[in-house]
């Protein structure tokens, strides 16, 4: 999921790491380690290199749920567990003037032939040097010159990370992005105008394994997953690639075997896309629904295939209205609610919530104020 850089938040397999005991003693003393130091990530990466091959070739032989389509594993052992130790999230370890050079591992188209546009799942190898938490974003600096500032690099583009802190290979060395290729069509001719296409999204979707990529970050606190209460309710609302952070949440809840992190609450995902071919990570979400029916709910709004109760297109706000009584009761009981996707989704959702609140004899403005005060309301739109 991409958003403008002006948003400032915004069978089990085991992977061993060198001498874990000495690493834990020397780097993570007394659980007081801070992520916000490059020396930390360098120390961790150095220890990891003792048992892991550095470049992207190490991934080609892996078969442990690496593909976004492969969800046969129930619980996967992750490492390094020291990624759980810091009390605070990593923030801005690398900045635009001192970005980190990572490598592309893979680029995989994740929508069907009838989907409008192309969306890709992109795995990036940061070799353990750019740790992040679920719900954070990476900045990407595409190659080339900024047309508005001759001689200067392009501006940073922010993308929500679509993996857990352990990455798609569960070894803490990769991060994944969900990117829709931005293509511009001339309204008069109907033809594509490459000169106006999205620079960064096309760079990412056209990337090949081994290509270098300049990364900044990680950034963002508003979408961090609150985990103090393992039985909490999380209502996640997304349009399109806005599903990215939720994939990370759900893999952490249902796919990964993280010590002392057993999720026993309710995760409820609402995903709005154009049609069935546009669904993202549907195989993963459907598997969670099958394996964890008491802890996961999954509702889809397919605007070009379904109708709402008024006979119009089915948008995500229509699904919210359908379950509004239940959603409001969950919010009254402390549920967290998240919104991620195009900013155009919010007015319709807000109107729906306001109308439902008034029907219940409540003031939506007061309720929203209370949700924000209680830190139950999480929004990242672009």
TrEMBL record:
Q: Which domain of life is it from?
A: Eukaryota
Q: What is its main location?
A: plastid
Name its cellular compartments: Plastid, Chloroplast
- CDD domains from the entry? CYPOR_like_FNR (cd06208)
- Respond yes or no to whether keyword NAD is given for this record: no
Quote the EC number: 1.18.1.2
Protein name, entry field: Ferredoxin--NADP reductase, chloroplastic
